Amino acid sequence: MGDEKKQSAYAGRWVARLHGHIIAQGGTPELARRAALSARHKESPEIIYMPFEFSLPPLVNQVRAVLPDQEIYLVGGAVRDMLLGRASHDLDFAVPAKAIPLARRVADALDVAYVTLDEEHDTGRIIHTSEDGTRTYLDFASFRGRTLEEDLRDRDFTINALALDLQQAAILDPLEGAADLRAKRIRACSPTALSADPIRILRAVRQAAAFGFQIEKETREWMRQAVGQLGQVSPERQRDELFKMLDGPKPDASIRALEMLGVLPQLLPELSALKGVVQSPPHVYDVWTHTLAVLQHLDGLLAALDVNYNPDSTNDLYTGLLTLRIGRYREQITKHIDTPLTTDRSARALLLFAALYHDVRKPQTRSVEEGGRIRFFDHEVQGAEVAAERAQALRLSTDELHRLRIVIRNHMRFHFHTSRMDGEGQSPSRRAIYRFFRESGAAGTELILLGLADLRATHGPSLKQETWSAALDVARVLLENYWEKPQETIAPPRLLDGHDLMRALELKPGPAVGEALEAIREAQATGKVSTREEALEFGKHWLEEQHNSS
Q1: Domain residue ranges in the chain
Q2: pLDDT of 82-120, one tens digit each?
Q3: Is 322 within 8 Å of 312 (Cβ atoms)?
Q4: Backbone φ and ψ of 120, nearest 5°
Q5: What's the pTM value of the predicted model, to 2 decimals?
Q6: pLDDT per residue over 308-335, tens digit each?
Q7: What's the whole-number mean pLDDT along residues 6-10?
Q8: Which of 49, 252, 329, 390 could lock 295 by a disulfide, CB 3.0 to 4.6 Å apart?
Q9: 345-365 burial string, b = 16+ CB within 10 Å, else e?
Q10: What share of the chain is helix, strand, coil (3-state, %, to 5)?
Q11: What's the CATH number for 58-183?
């Protein structure tokens, strides 16, 4: 029993055994051999792998079956995730040579899609789509170095410098990455790992948040030293790491970490000016701290309104009221947030990016009135353009730019309705509801979610339950109309078009026709018009009023 316990301590490691006793161990056969020679340099120990139980992803077993005699390794994040018990949809395989033909062979055997990623670096990709539509990417590449160990040592962090020998089902761990996994530690593979590819600075912060790990002190110092080189990284790679960070857990903590490391002036330079910008009550934080609080609360809101939310996971009163008032729209909200504007990035990450930039122009629009009240006139209008410029620099799509502009430009609308509900008990009118969604369209849901997070971050711990309830009532009214009564108040069916209006009222083409049609549509949304005849009569009177007023 004692021997079994001793051996289990080496599970997943290579050991040197002499006369039945383990005398050394290491992450690879060579490391175990070197350790043994340093202690018993005149003897030749047996080098063996101490197995431990783990389950391979089914696709990995299929690759093994197709290439039974091929030297091939599962490497990097997929091995890390396997050891952490996490599912992975990115499987990277390393082979000594001829990766592209091997990838084609596997693709043909599995009858799945194949694409050549990089002919010069001998890299091919297989795309496997499961029955539920989930995609898994299997990348095949030749060793980056002369050997597998060189390949692993040239990677970013030790927890990603792991390999699984598919033939022997044995782990290769030359840099003690498994130990760092157990210690919940992010450690660079070498002093030059960050300067060799500065995007790894963002990746370290993202993975620390994703796994709940700490970045090792020396690695943090190397990150700071490499920050100035971040501008050498393409905007697309910067964007991808940033949006994965926003899409992951604790986005506020990740952005705070970037700020502490000095990354923001390189990555998101407009945000540096937010620090220390004081705001009047009910704001309890400066603009920068407020922005981070908005990210935190928005992340919490989205979790609480997700279809998989566990109500036992929080005892927060405000979250309880949130789920009570608008929890019935979980399915719609989840579907909306899960529907991306581009295949590469989520709508959730874009909303969090909007939250990050929603007050970006407050420093430049700040003014102090008599009596000391601080105002930020037009900060939302100017901020929308600043955010769009940064988004454009990060190569976001046209649809994302459009959505971003709408959300930031209109983010004060929700607060207007909340203020009226809280102060006067006045719910948004049908006209107000129509205009809210006329301006925001599909982005209306984002405006509501951002508005709720913004309110919590504005008041902080001093938020009154009555004010929060008023905001939730506004959110419920808006969402109810958008999802349950769209043809009544949001997008009533057109009763006539421009040609109908011009023909019936003998009008010439011009802007007045479109304006009259919009006035008729608003009248439908407010219940004043319901038939074609009423629409024509309303349009006639509206045009007469416009003519008389001019």
Answers
A1: 2-49, 58-183, 193-267, 269-490, 498-549
A2: 999 888 899 999 999 999 999 999 999 999 999 999 999
A3: no
A4: -60, -40
A5: 0.90
A6: 998 777 778 999 999 999 999 999 999 9
A7: 66
A8: 252
A9: bbbbbbbbbbbbbbbbbbbeb
A10: 60, 10, 30
A11: 3.30.460.10
